[in-house]
Amino acid sequence: MNPQVPEELISAYFDGEVTPEERVVVERLLADSEDAQRSLNETARLSGLLHSFPRESAPVELVSKIRQLTDQVPLVPPARPVAATSDRWRELKAALISAMATAAGILIVWNIVDHSGPSRAVALNTQKTAELARAPGPAASEAAVLQDHAIAAADSESVLEDLAEQRSPSTERRKAAKQSVVPMPGDARKSAPSLGSIPAVAADAVKREAGTADLKKTDAAAISEDAPSFAGGSPAQAPAGFRAQPEVDNVTNLGLSNEEFLTGLHNGNVYTVASPDSNVAVVELTVVDIDKGAESIQVLLKKREIPQRFNDTDGANAKAKQQANADSFVVVYAIAPGDRLAKALEDIGNQPETFLQWNSQPPLQLPTNEFADRKLAAAIDPLAKSDSQTEALKPGAGEVPRQETEVEQAEAEQIVNAYVGRNLLVQNSAVANPVAGPPDADGIKEKGVAERQYPVGNSRSMQRGFGNRAGEYANAKDQLAGGYKLLHVPTNKSLEQQNVLLNNLNVAQNGGLEMFSRNGRRLAQEDKASRAEAGTRPVRMLFVLHANQPEPAAGAVPAPIRQK
Amino acid sequence: MIVNATSDETLIHQCLAGRREAFGQLVERYQHRLYHGLLHVLGSAEDAQDIAQEAFVSAFEKLSSFKGQAAFYSWLFRIALNASVSARRKTRRMSVSVETRREENGLEPSDENPSTEPSYAMDVADRQRLVRQALAELSEEFRTALVLKEMDGMSYEEIAEVVEVPLGTVRSRIHRARLELRAKLATLLKPELL
Questions:
Q1: In this structure, is residue A490 part of a structural domain?
Q2: pLDDT tens digits, one per residue of B9-39
Q3: How many helices (H) and strands (E) does chain B have?
Q4: Number of separate domains in chain A
């Protein structure tokens, strides 16, 4: 180890607590020194161990005890000199003038902003907004954006307050999570404790390798809710004083931490994870061993009363398993009440020996009822079925509708194909356009890990795909029984197969993201109306199990941790 | 994106204006976080509950003196740490052995391990016990810094506010805590797990 770069610096680097200059030094060392990489990896493993503890909730009686005690304590208002009547009138007048001036400023800014664009995540700091509004130039427009978001957020505030009123012992912890924006080790927001000190993708990757940290990271780790946050683009655009939430985060998983994702599932706020009608939540799991992971997840789903619904009657899955190469993966497509899926995910977090980590990914959108859209069914050829096989799946005129298991099977295969297609697109774009990934904390585009997670094809026009027909599809699917299907998916597809996938990927691209960002308010209201069903509405979820593999295009990324 | 409805600052103002229930919201917001952090700093569920309770009540009493220079939670945790120091002067509960403490404090590993294979549960339970044991053997300064960082998720700056030391000291303590913890675990855990 270079004595000029003590391990202390690497420890701080892991925590994202280094200056830009220090980061350069550390990353250079990481690229050259195995000792440095080992030190970083060991720190990551240790962090993973510490995060493996279950989150302990305070005893239920704590609140009542505190209330009893504080009820006996007189409230002491802050010391404040009593002003003479005339002084108080002057104060009041000054406050009124100030308020009117601020309101006028806000109105002016509001009117000059184009509100036609899609709204994004919110930033709430009206004081800061007012300051910015008074500032000239770009700062004023930033203020306008913030104001826009603040107003949108204020509209949904009552909804959130109502939701927060829900009380039950089992929701206490999740309620706490709801009140916080939770940074995770594998979460870009975790990388932004303060502007200018955001660790590179490298540390993030190591943290992802660290195991169960994501699931166990506390909601206590939140960027505090009263701290203003800015989510309107790259961190470089964040106004001073705002914590950066890189936009890439919203692309990755709708800006949800794992905790928030679970909260959404538990509370039935499925709009926060995927639309309940046609969108499929996607969760990627990194497993130590693919076969063991597949076995374990089946056990977990059964434990949560999510039955296996499909028989591999044609042996296609077994054949795929035989063909599986080193890059193959296993998917489990499940349709089940959100709370059961959430519990299954929590169970997964309790098996760090098998599941190193999990992360939610952008939802995939089911295109439409495959009965009604033969062209699409043929285009998205599930698991390399031949055209004749695909054709055989389609009902003819007057034909008796197929059994629901067949529908689910076709649905599962479509969504798996969409997932594979998305990954192919990402991989291809990473090769063709090495700087296509999202900016890192300093606005510098990095390749490798970033591209893997943030597809360049993630445009809004692609996302809109089948939004209009989602309802139609949902109606046909509402009555489906729950269950899961497990598939082995070899990825050694032919170039032709890859092209088919890529050409048709747009139909399945991230519909949920679009719905979430554009219609957040409406969805929140709908969610409020139907929250009585909390946790019980069926959610479609694709679990994707990947073996622990080295990241492509490592660059400054340290060697991944290998676990036996 | 989930946005919190009311800021801490607003709740504090409301409380100072006579709305006691606003403080109740603060308690609900932070009780689990504070308890979880204290649990690992103090190593005892009973102590964590007592200190959390004392900290909230004390914060309520001193609310008018809260200047808002630090986050409310940092301020609250500082009160809790001060309370724990005072409490420890009176009792010496920390001197019990780690094993005894584990039995007393109810910190058994989660029983939610879903695996049907007993080895999973055993592995996780054993590992968590060993990590907890090693953590408890760290000096309080190191343990506090590391817990606040790793389990509470505070930034170095926030930790510096809580423990009232310079930023560089926080960095150093966390690093040294990691070194010590790693060394202790190296003798307790299989190499591949560390």
A1: yes
A2: 888 888 888 888 889 889 988 999 899 999 9
A3: 9, 0
A4: 2
